[in-house]
Amino acid sequence: MSELERSLLRRLRDRDERAFRELIQEHRDRVFNITFRMLGNRAEAEDVAQEVFIAVFKTIDDFREESKFSTWLYRVAVNHCKNRIKYLARRPALDRSREEMDETTHGTGVNGTIGAPLPSSPQKALESKQMEKLMQEAIANLEEDQRIVVVLRDVEDLSIEEICEITGLPDGTVKSRLHRARLVLRKRLQRHIEDRHE
Amino acid sequence: MSEAAEDDIDDEVVAKVSDYLDGLLKGTERNDVAKKIESDPVWKQTHADMVENRKFMSGMQKAHAPPTFTEDVTGTINKRSKGRFFARKTLGDRVPFNALLIVAIIAMAAVGYLMWSSQTGSLKVEKKPAPPPPAPPPVR
Fold first, then answer.
1. B37 near B43, Cβ under 8 Å?
2. If B85 and its partner were Cys, which of A112, A130, B74, B81 is the partner (CB 3.0–4.6 Å)?
3. For residue range A114-164, what is the model confidence (pLDDT) as tens digits?
4. Chain B residues lying within 8 Å of A15, measured CB to CB
């Protein structure tokens, strides 16, 4: 852990509001990315991302500095997502519908749901948006265990080692789960693309 | 699509090929895996699938938190804790330390001047009067 990170931690433990703000600024996009990809719904993702930071602030004294702070933070994020998925599964009335998914994956305005620059031509932009939407749906339909490793690896670009620390899974399990998840995604999306072209 | 059925996947092969593609294997181990990929159909297929999968996943776009996210979180914390969560700021975050320093220096200079100029001031160095000349010897 760097001296800068230690100093930030000290300030966090002293309940320094500025330190909390710095922490949020630094990690908000990555935490939001995890929650959004895990939950597939912008409103839920925002809510859970907020709860993640609040939980981190409340339990900062429990962080024993045995791992990187970011690893601990992402573990908290993943656990919150798992809990929310369970909670939402018990609430069938709450329609996490396709319309909402459309809204979230098509937002490219100030709030910039999707951060990558749009392709130059409108046709390409449309295709890119549709592809992104399909990808988001496909990820949301993965089994939870597979979704977690795909999000951490392919969305967050974390190393296998970090994913093992976050999930508590052995190295081999993470790799095979990731491979299976990617195969499923590729298969589903290619099938979808082929169907559209027929 | 040519990938093997999910059930046919050999986890050990996947782990090795994954490390190979991530550049984590060195020396003979790397060469061994490279040879197996060339000669063994299972390894070859796994390698081809993994390369294709990685290409497929490489275009994942990033989502961004809303711009007001930081304020939303701190606002929620303040609301729930009724303002007691963050350390109480007696002087606040915006203490103008530079201005305070200048004021302190001016105040110290003023006090010093007053003490120096005062009749009873302890900084006033009073010149001691010259000792009186020795009295002349008495004339008899």
1. yes
2. B81
3. 444 445 566 666 677 777 788 888 888 899 999 999 999 988 889 999 999
4. 85-87
Q: Write the CB contacts of A135 (distance below 8 Å, at least 6 apart in sequence).
A: A185, A189, B60
A166-183 residue pLDDT tens:
999 999 999 999 999 999
From chain A, the residues in CB contact with B72 under 8 A are 46, 50
Q: Which residue has the tokens 């933070």?
A: A73
State how far the Cα of B116 lies from the Cα of A89, in Å rounded to an integer: 81
pTM for the whole structure: 0.70
B85 within domain boundaries: no
A114: β partners: B63
CA gyration radius for chain B?
A: 43
Domain housing B30 = 8-57
Nearest CA in chain B to A159: B22
Beta bridge partners of B63: A114
CB B25 within 8 A of CB B19: yes
Note whether B54 and B21 are within 8 A (CB). Answer: yes
Cβ separation B14–A175 shorter than 8 A: yes
Q: Report whether B36 contacts B14 (CB < 8 A).
A: no
CA distances from B80 to A152, B73, B87, B90, B132 (A): 31, 11, 15, 21, 83
Whether residue B48 is contained in a domain is answered as yes
Q: Count up the domains in chain B and report the number.
A: 1
Q: Which residues of A touch B74 (CB under 8 A)?
A: 17, 20-21, 24
Give how far the C-alpha of residue B69 lies from the chain's centroid of Cα atoms, to the nearest Å.
20
DSSP for A99-110 reads HHHHHHHH--ST
Class of domain A1-96: mainly alpha
